[in-house]
């Protein structure tokens, strides 16, 4: 069967193929910081219980914010669902694709400087800062603070006994 393009001019508008939605100002966000966050159906399919996240649970909060930031169809959805204070608090702990993280940090440089981890050593009030350069080949998820390991391939040159060359 031959391929027929959509006649109404639609393109593939999945989250993987569109630019991330980033509002102009973080202070325009007005989502709740307490209670339950229920994301729209297009962000999490299935029963309503799979779309509800307890904002009091840190793991559920991070998962909900990751889903909203990656799957939102527009800035209006982000403004309704995300709380600015909570976003700043969990920003470094979010596991986001690099294109989403870069889009947000480019538009809002204050997020790039957000650090929420402290040193538990002698100077407990000191802030830990890390610098990681993401090369152009890094197209997956942004990994902060991990050293890149260079892998080399070794060829086996052992000849099997009994076979003459």
TrEMBL record:
The beginning of the lineage is:
Bacteria, Bacillati, Actinomycetota, Actinomycetes, Micromonosporales
* Region feature Disordered, mapped onto this chain: 1-22, 137-165
According to UniProt, the name of this protein is Uncharacterized protein
Q: Which portions of the chain have biased composition (kind: Low complexity)?
A: 147-165
Can you name the source organism?
Actinoplanes octamycinicus
In terms of domain of life, where is this protein from?
A: Bacteria
């Amino acid at each position: 069967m031959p391929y027929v393009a959509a006649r109404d001019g639609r393109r593939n508008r999945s989250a993987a193929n569109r630019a991330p939605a980033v509002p102009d100002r973080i202070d325009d966000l007005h989502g709740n910081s307490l209670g339950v966050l229920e994301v729209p159906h297009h962000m999490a399919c299935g029963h309503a219980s799979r779309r509800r996240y307890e904002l009091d649970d840190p793991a559920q909060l991070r998962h909900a914010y990751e889903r909203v930031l990656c799957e939102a169809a527009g800035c209006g959805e982000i403004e309704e669902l995300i709380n600015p204070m909570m976003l700043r608090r969990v920003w470094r702990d979010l596991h986001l694709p690099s294109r989403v993280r870069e889009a947000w940090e480019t538009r809002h440089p204050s997020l790039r400087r957000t650090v929420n981890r402290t040193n538990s050593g002698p100077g407990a009030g000191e802030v830990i800062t890390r610098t990681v350069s993401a090369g152009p080949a890094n197209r997956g998820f942004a990994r902060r603070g991990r050293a890149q390991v260079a892998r080399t391939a070794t060829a086996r040159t052992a000849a099997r006994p009994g076979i003459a060359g």
